[in-house]
Amino acid sequence: MRITQPRSLQKRQLLAVSLGLVAFLALAGYALDRAFNNTARGYLRERLSSYALAFAKESDFARDGSFVEPYNTPDARFLRPGSGLYAEVVFPNGHWDSESAQGPTLPPAKLLPAKHQRFEGPLPMHQIDGSEGEVYRYGLGLIWSSEGNRTAEFPYTIYVYESADALREQVAIFRAALWRYLGGAGLILLLLQGIIMRWSLLPLRQVIAELKRVQRGQDSRMSERHPRELEPLTASINAFIESERENLERQRNTLADLAHSLKTPLAVLHSRLEDPTANPAALRDEVQAQVRRMNDIVSYQLARAASSGHTLFAAPIAIAPHAEQIVTGLEKVYATKGVICEFDFDDGIQFYGEAGDLQELLGNLLENAFKWARSRVLLTIKGVACDDGRRPGVLLAVDDDGPGIPVEKVPLVLQRGVRGDERVQGHGIGLAIVQDLVRGYRGTLEVTASEELGGARFEVRLPPGL
Predict the structure, then answer these.
(1) What is the pTM of this model?
(2) CA–CA separation, 312 vs 310, rounded Å?
(3) What is the largest CA-CA distance in the chain?
(4) Cys bridge to 258: 56, 301, 365, 447, which one at CB 3.0-4.6 A?
(5) Residue pair 73/53 in contact by the 8 Å Cβ criterion
(6) 184 lies in a domain?
(7) What is the Rg, in whole angstroms, of the alpha carbon atoms belonging to the chain?
(8) Which residues neighbour 32 within 8 Å (Cβ) at sequence distance 6 or greater?
(9) Which domain holds residue 337?
């Protein structure tokens, strides 16, 4: 079956429709043929019944019981031998045949009960030339009675025969016309169905053409103007295309984020190695700490790339130790500027998420503040209480006393790879990493002017219940 099935959808549908149409036309033709046969037989019965009643009206019996044939026959064919229309009257003492019945051998007839009618056929008979034939017969049972003498009553039956050839000829003519018209209608319907099917499959061909353009790189995605039945398919294809592009972009961003995250530990190592007054033991401890931190950063970035998201039900993490570790490292990197970082923490404030996410968030915000600050940086971490019993949210803000950021430049600064000042060393992806992390935790990031220090203020709000 699989071998014989065409691979084309249009051919499969055309084959199925053709088979269905042929079956429908065959059943319709059969039904019409049977209906015409029944109608023709009913009309024949009524016609023969009319002839029988005409004979009953025109014929009579003499006083001695002999049959008196009708003076006028209802049809001239009753007077012509072998005409195909015959009459016969059967009574107790004999029977009478019309002139047309002289020669042919009709089926044997018998008396019928009074007021009884019988229509039957086709019955075998012998034609006037001796050949085999068939006739339809209608019989009407009657009673003759003499006026004033009810004892002289006797039954008799009038039979009228008609050759089956006439009915067969009518049926043959009807069948020829019926199948000719049905065949023509079938061809027209098949042609029309082919046109309709080609028109109805046009959206599929458009989808195929769009897919080919996407494969060749001529289009970036499929259009959204498709029939409702194809919208789930095209939407899934677009989602797959977007997913592949996001995966590629995420891989590129992960490499960039990894390089950016390793920049601060490397800068700390470089500054310590360049310090001629550094204690060897303290230098060794610093190298070990920074190498451990770089190893944690690499592990975190790999895990982040693999999971592509944060854990909603992560264990709480104390924020203060991580913040102090990051600030200590940054103060060593920017020791020549003499920047001092102040803390404003709530007691026991915790972060519900990945430790690597917290380090990335604090590290990038604080590094940006140290880079632009003149002498002061303020790190504020507050809890956001929730009345419905959920775990509290977090407000994390970093202020500096630097030049600040104009309002019109805030969207530009948050873009990946864009730096606020091209003269300042950097990669321009730190704040983009912060924005991605905040978005992943369903939080918000706002960049405003610092009321306390006069520079820029980066404020992160993580909602309760995360």
Answers:
(1) 0.46
(2) 6
(3) 164
(4) 301
(5) no
(6) no
(7) 53
(8) 178
(9) 309-466
